[in-house]
C-alpha cells in the first residue's frame, strides 16, 4: 500500500496523480512571478480511510508499519543509514511551582545538526527509489549543509547554492561533506532563482524548500514522534518560522493523524518569527506585502516565505497564532537555553523558546498543558551571532595564578 498518494494544490485545489516527479501545481505555478509568494505548492493526500480501517483492526498498525503508509516511499530501507529524526524530547523546568510541562524537541541532534535533515532524508530516499543520483538545492545554509551530509551518506551528489554571506560553519559543512558549493552574489532569492534555472537546464532533481513537496512531508515526521513520545498530542507547539515549511510540516503530520483517527484534536501551533523577518505573521489577514528581512537568526531571515499560502491556511484553519521576538530576545533565549538546560541552540532555534517566554509573560498557561518547543538547529553552526553574549577571559600565568 505504500506509495499510494495523490497531490493536491494548496491554491486551486486541483488533484494530480503520483506519476513521476512533480514540483508545483502545473496550473498555478505558471502565474508565479519573481517577488511574489510561490503559488501551487502541493500537499500529499494518502488513503486515509483505508489506513483508518487498518488501525481499527490493529491499534499499533502505524507504529508497526513505521508510518511508511503515510510516506511517499516504497521502502524505509531507501532512507539514509544515519539516524534522522527520532530525536529526544527533554522535559525542562522553566520555573518552579507551575505544573504545565515544557518539552524541548531536540532536532539539533540530527546528523547535520538541524531539522532540515528530515526533509533531506525523504528527498534523498525518493531520489534513490527513482534512480536519481544528483540533487540540487538553494539554501540559506542549513538545508544545504543537510542535503550535502545526507547525500554523502547515500552516495549521491549534491549541488548547493547559497548567498555568499551564509555563516562559515554551514559552508564548511557543505564542503566537508564533499558537495559542490556555489556561493551566489546576492540574496537567498538570487540563489533560489539560479537553482531553478540550473534544475531546468540540466534536468536535475531539486530539493528547494516548499517547491519540492516532499520537504513538507519529510518535516511532518516530527509530529508522529511527538504523539508517540507524549502518548498523545501535545497542547501547544512553538515553531520558529522562515519559509513556513517546518510549520506546515508540523501541521501536516498532526492532520494526517487526525485523518486516520489516531488523535482527536489539533494542538495549538505558535508560529514564532523575528521582528525583522515577519512576512508570514504580518500578512495573515491582508493582501500580502513582503518586506526585506533583517535578523541575526539567519535560518529564519526570509524575504518571501516560500510556503506562504500553505502555512497561512493552516494557521487560520486551526486558530494558530503568531508571535514576534526581537533579536535581543532571541539572544537572551540562547543564553537561557544554554545556561539553564545545557542546550546550545542556533538563533533561529532559540527564537522558538523566546516565543514561549514572551507568550508566558502575556498569557496564562493551563495547569496540565503540555508544551513543546522545537529546537531546530545547533548553536555551533553560528557562533558569531552570540559573540556579544560572552566574554573570553584573558590567559593566566600558571605560575602566579590564584583562583578567586
Ligand atoms: C530552516 C530553519 C527554520 C525555519 O524553517 P522554515 O521551514 O524555513 O520555516 C528554523 N530553524 C532552523 C534552525 C532552520 O534551519
Ligand atoms: Zn493549483
CATH architecture of the largest domain: 3-Layer(aba) Sandwich
Distance between the termini: 67 Å
Level of helix content? Answer: 25-40%
Strand order of the largest sheet: 4-5-13-10-11-12
> Could you please say which CATH topology of the largest domain applies here?
Rossmann fold
Q: How many strand units?
A: 13
User: Bound small molecules, which ones?
Assistant: pyridoxal-5'-phosphate, zinc ion
Residues in β-strands, percent: 15-25%
Describe the biggest sheet? 6 strands, mixed
Number of domains: 2
Mean pLDDT: 95
- SS-derived structural category: alpha/beta
Shape field: globular
Question: Topology as H/E string?
Answer: EEEHHEEHEHEHEHEHHEHEHEHHE
Short précis:
With 404 residues, this protein is of the alpha/beta class.
Task: Outline the secondary-structure elements.
Layout: E1 6-9, E2 15-17, E3 42-45, H1 48-57, H2 61-64, E4 89-92, E5 101-106, H3 116-129, E6 134-138, H4 142-153, E7 157-163, H5 168-176, E8 180-184, H6 188-201, E9 205-206, H7 214-219, H8 221-229, E10 236-240, H9 245-259, E11 268-274, H10 308-317, E12 321-325, H11 327-341, H12 347-362, E13 370-375
Parallel strand pairs: 5-13, 6-7, 6-9, 7-8, 10-11, 10-13, 11-12
Antiparallel strand pairs: 1-2, 1-3, 4-5
Helix pairs in contact: 3-4, 4-5, 8-9, 11-12
Structural description of this entry:
This protein has 12 helices and 13 strands. By secondary structure, it is α/β, with parallel strands linked by helices. The strands form 3 sheets. Strands 4-5-13-10-11-12 form a 6-stranded mixed beta sheet, with helices on both faces. A 4-stranded parallel beta sheet has the order 8-7-6-9, sandwiched between helices. A 3-stranded antiparallel beta sheet has the order 2-1-3. β7, α5 (168-176) and β8 form a beta-alpha-beta unit. The radius of gyration is 21 Å and the shape is globular.
Amino acid at each position: 500500500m505504500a506509495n499510494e498518494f495523490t497531490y493536491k494544490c494548496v491554491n486551486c485545489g486541483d488533484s494530480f496523480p503520483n506519476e513521476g516527479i512533480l514540483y508545483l501545481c502545473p496550473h498555478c505555478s505558471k502565474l508565479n512571478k519573481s517577488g511574489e509568494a510561490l503559488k501551487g505548492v502541493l500537499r500529499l493526500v494518502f488513503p486515509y480511510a483505508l489506513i483508518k480501517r487498518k488501525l481499527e483492526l490493529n491499534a499499533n498498525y502505524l507504529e508497526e508499519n513505521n508510518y511508511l503508509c503515510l510516506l511517499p516511499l516504497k521502502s524505509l530501507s531507501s532512507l539514509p543509514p544515519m539516524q534522522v529524526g527520532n530525536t529526544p524530547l527533554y522535559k525542562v523546568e522553566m520555573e518552579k511551582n507551575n505544573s504545565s510541562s515544557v518539552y524541548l524537541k531536540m532536532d539539533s541532534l540530527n546528523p547535520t545538526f538541524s531539522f532540515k535533515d528530515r526533509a533531506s532524508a525523504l528527498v534523498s530516499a525518493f531520489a534513490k527509489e527513482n534512480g536519481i543520483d544528483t540533487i540540487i538545492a538553494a539554501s540559506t545554509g542549513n538545508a544545504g549543509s543537510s542535503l550535502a551530509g545526507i547525500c554523502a551518506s547515500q552516495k549521491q551528489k549534491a549541488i548547493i547554492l547559497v548567498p555568499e554571506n551564509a555563516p562559515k560553519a554551514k559552508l564548511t559543512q557543505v564542503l566537508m561533506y564533499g558537495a559542490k558549493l556555489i556561493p551566489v552574489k546576492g540574496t537567498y532569492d538570487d540563489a533560489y532563482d539560479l537553482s531553478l534555472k540550473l534544475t531546468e537546464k540540466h534536468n536535475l532533481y531539486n530539493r528547494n524548500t516548499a517547491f519540492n513537496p516532499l520537504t513538507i512531508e519529510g518535516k511532518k515526521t516530527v509530529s508522529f514522534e511527538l504523539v508517540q513520545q507524549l502518548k498523545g498530542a501535545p497542547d501547544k507547539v512553538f515553531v520558529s518560522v522562515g519559509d513556513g515549511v517546518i510549520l506546515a510540516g508540523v501541521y501536516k503530520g498532526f492532520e494526517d493523524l487526525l485523518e486516520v483517527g489516531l488523535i482527536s484534536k489539533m494542538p495549538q501551533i505558535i508560529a514564532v518569527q523575528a521582528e525583522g523577518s515577519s512576512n508570514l505573521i504580518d500578512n495573515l489577514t491582508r493582501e500580502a506585502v513582503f518586506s526585506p528581512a533583517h535578523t541575526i537568526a539567519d535560518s529564519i531571515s526570509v524575504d518571501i516565505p516560500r510556503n506562504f499560502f500553505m502555512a497561512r491556511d493552516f494557521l487560520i484553519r486551526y486558530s494558530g497564532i503568531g508571535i514576534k521576538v526581537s533579536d535581543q530576545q532571541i539572544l537572551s533565549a540562547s543564553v537561557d537555553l544554554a545556561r539553564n538546560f545545557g542546550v546550545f541552540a542556533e538563533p533561529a532555534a532559540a527564537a522558538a523558546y523566546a516565543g514561549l517566554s514572551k507568550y508566558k509573560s502575556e498569557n496564562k498557561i493551563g495547569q496540565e498543558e503540555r508544551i513543546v518547543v522545537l529546537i531546530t538547529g545547533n548553536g555551533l553552526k553560528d557562533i558569531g551571532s552570540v559573540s556579544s553574549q560572552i566574554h573570553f577571559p584573558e590567559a593566566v600565568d600558571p605560575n602566579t595564578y590564584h583562583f578567586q
